[in-house]
Amino acid sequence: MKKLFQRLSRKERLYVMAGAAVLFFGMVVYPGAKKASAYREEQRGLLEGEMQMLESLYGLYYDEGAITTEHQQLRGALREADDLLFPPIENPILTQTAMIKLFNELGPDLNLQTTSGRSSVGDAANQMNLSVKGQGRYAEILKFMHRIETYRPLILIEGFSISERRSRSSRRSRFPMRSTGSQSEEPTLSLELAIQIICQEGGEK
């Protein structure tokens, strides 16, 4: 091999040495460098992942007080939400009877009549629709509506209508009678409400 190499000219020797160098680089140096580069990239990715995890942990530690406060506020809101709901419906008839009593207490001067309201297909088991009708003067109706709006648990009003209730004598008379007093008598109004109440879960299945 040495004799063959010695017989080559100087230029040919340079070609052989250059080819050997290229072959050595391609088979040994380049694969090794490629593996080293891939290893460095892998380690770099792991290091970046660890840094991100540490930043997240630090953020959780830093926000621990805020998270605890928000959790306490959420629990308080849930307790308040329970206070906004009526007790579970153990028996629909008993629940409706209790609502009739409640409405009569809120509007004692309106001669209220409470019946089951119109139900829809999507009504939940913890929901009850009621229809309330009554009659009275404007001040009495206004007081009743204010009591419903401020009552807790919540009473939802889905429909509301009010109209003047005329007496039989006024309907029969073609011409209205003149008032003898300085002021006309306050008219009686008819009231009709569509009401919905939402109860807590855990009642009748």
List keywords for this structure.
205 residues, alpha+beta, Alpha-Beta Plaits, 2 domains, four-stranded antiparallel β-sheet, 6 helices, 4 strands, 17% strand, Transl_elong_EF1B/ribsomal_bS6, membrane, Type II secretion system protein M, transmembrane helix, transmembrane
Structure description:
The protein is an alpha+beta fold and about 200 residues long. It folds into 2 domains: about 5-85; about 90-165 and about 185-200, Ribosomal protein S6/Translation elongation factor EF1B (Alpha-Beta Plaits, 2-Layer Sandwich). Helices cover about 55% and strands about 15% of the residues. Strands 1-2-4-3 form a 4-stranded antiparallel sheet. Keywords: Membrane, Transmembrane, Transmembrane helix. InterPro entries: Transl_elong_EF1B/ribsomal_bS6. It comes from Pontiella desulfatans. This is Type II secretion system protein M.
List the helices and strands and how they pair.
Elements: H1 2-7, H2 10-62, H3 64-83, H4 92-106, E1 113-116, E2 127-136, H5 138-150, E3 156-165, H6 168-172, E4 188-198
Antiparallel strand pairs: 1-2, 2-4, 3-4
